[in-house]
Amino acid sequence: MSSGGSSTETSGSGDIARTLDLLWGTGQRPSRGPKPGLTLERIVETAIEVADRDGLGALSMRRIATELGTGTMSLYRYVPGKAELLDLMLDRVQRPSENPADLGDGGWRSALEALGRATLALYRRHPWLLEVNQSRPILGPSALDGMEKVLSRIKPMGLSDPELLSAIVMIDGYVVGAARTQLYQEQAEHSSGLTDAEFWEAQRPALEKAMNSGRYPVMAALSDDTFSSGFDHFEFGLQRILDGLEEFVSRRAAEQGR
Fold it and tell me: Does 108 score more than 60 pLDDT?
């Protein structure tokens, strides 16, 4: 998987009205074109496959047309351009699972826990999502279906509506940071040609000298497993966020006499 360059795409940068028509199926469907089987759904799926494989930098209407074996102009019968297509891609990859068990065992904590893990998995499957500025998303059916499912499960937290939304934003922000760190680590290994173990081994002599100098007594006394790859930093952080929310929910309930 290529990073596809360092440029950032922005959601909602196309024709908003046209994008909403396409997302919600309220616009006029194109008449049958010269390419049998060509549909908006196929175009979106193909675009996702290209971005997954080669990054957003490789995504263009010409590239998608080549993948589909059709002319570039035929795509414009279905979608106005790359900006609107990106919003369709974003909504498509956010399509929620139909299995209620995928949001935990029923409690709000398990729902947010499952949301965190599922969101990390989403970014792992589609690393190009980290190249998109989604501060102003176009809200389609998949995004709203997912939000509805999560809100319905965390409503019993007893928080105000803005606070419920903030809990979701908190989890998402944490996951985005973790996903970006993981992606950067993989890109560094690929670009340098050094594995993570080889990279740190190259620093060992200098670090051992520094630790033996007496200048860093706290760090020198750290246990051998401190930087072990076996420690799940993502899961540790996620659980501490949930612990904090649990404490806040309990305090709010006590204040309200619940």
Answer: yes
